[in-house]
Structures are given as C-alpha cells and as structure tokens.
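Appendix B, example 12.
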Amino acid sequence: MAINVDFKADTKNLSAEMPRHVAIIMDGNGRWAKSRGLPRTEGHRQGVKTVRNTVRLAHGLGIEYLTLFSFSSENWNRPASEVEFILGLLKRYIETDLEDLYRQNVRIQVIGSRSDLASGLRKLLTKAETRTQNCSGLTLVIAFNYGARDELARAVTKLAHDVAAGDLLPKDITSDRIEGYLDTSTVPDPDLIIRTSGEQRLSNFLLWQAAYSEFFFSPVHWPDFDDKAFEQAIYAFQNRDRRYGGLSAKAAQ
C-alpha cells in the first residue's frame, strides 16, 4: 500500500485516464467535530455535505462508479444515540436528494445486508434503487450495514446452498463464480480506494474487490475533503504503474 499523507500536486489539469471506479472510506467525522469543540453529530452532518460535493465532482470528472462506505456492520456497536442520528441522516439524504440524483442521471445501488434492518429503511433503500435503476450516468454505490467478511460469508452460504441443491458442482466454483455471488456482482472492482483522516487500513471494506486496487490515504478529515483533496487522490492514481502481477510497459521493453 502506498502512503500519501503528505502528497501535494498541481491538479489543475487532470488529463490522464480517470479511474473507472473510486471507493471511499469516509473517516474522520468525529475527529473533525472534536477538533472544533462540537458534538460528533455535527461532524456527521457536515459529512453529508461532503458526500453531495463528492458525488457532484465524481460525476463531473466522468467517473463511472463511486462507492461510499456509509455505515459498516460494526458501527452498530457505537452509542445508540449516534447510530440513530446516522440512520436519520441517511434517511434524510435519500428523501431530500433522490429526485435531484435522478435528474442528474445518477443510479443508486446499495450493498450490505438488509435482513436485520427495519422494514421502513429497507423500503426506502429499495425505493432509491428502483427510482434510479434506468439512470445511465454515475453509479453511486452506498455500502450500508456492510462488512466484507459478512459479504463473503453470505456469498459462501449461497454457493453451498446451490451445491446442495445440485445446481452447482464443487469443481465449477471459480473466482469468477464467487464474484457472481457478491453484493458487487454488477460493479467492477475499484481502481482506487481512498481513506480519509490519516488511518491506513481497510476496516473490513471490499476485501475481495480490493485485490488490485490502488490506495490513497489522505490526512484530511472527511468533512474537509474538498475538490482539491479529491483531485490529489486522482492525480496520485494517474501516476501509479499498475502491473497486475506482470511487468510495467517500460520494464517489458
């Protein structure tokens, strides 16, 4: 993994190839609020504003897929009042922004387990997906109640069920077949994974899909992750030599 906490670049002209899929671990809302003497909830509130701006920017840059880690399956362990506030923010974001996203031709896709969610929330997530299912611009993937290990466990359970039912032979279980059982079966693997707020770990996010992703760790807390910070991550990606286990073009010459 590349460490880029001090990365600086002139990003006025992002002329190289854009990543097709950018995934972001939106970290630092609480630290942003604490540094200003504000309650953690205010950090989450400001973080929603950053989500709106990031969606706008990604769409404008021609990025095809943007995945945002909005709520992990481990976040239920936070104080109940904070969890309730975050869930309320998600509901308000969808209710407030859904029609605007539709008009912008943004498709919404939600990944993560829904089995233990309240029925009203499940219906709201389904409504967002259904309303935008024919949009052909940016696909906004919201990772909600998502954990990569849980995703893999659910995929293996489905595989085992199909084998037991005689619909699938064990010898036919390939990596491509496994990918078809994942929440992201219709989404390409992320080219670039960004984590804000200086932490340098995946935190159970897209473990399978990140096999050949490039990583960018920004010191900026999520509420302050503006256009310049996003463009710095893109610029860093454009200057990476992606070899996928082989040789770079220069080395192969």
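The first strand starts at residue 21 and ends at 25. The beta strands are 21-25, 65-72, 107-111, 139-146, 192-195, 214-217.
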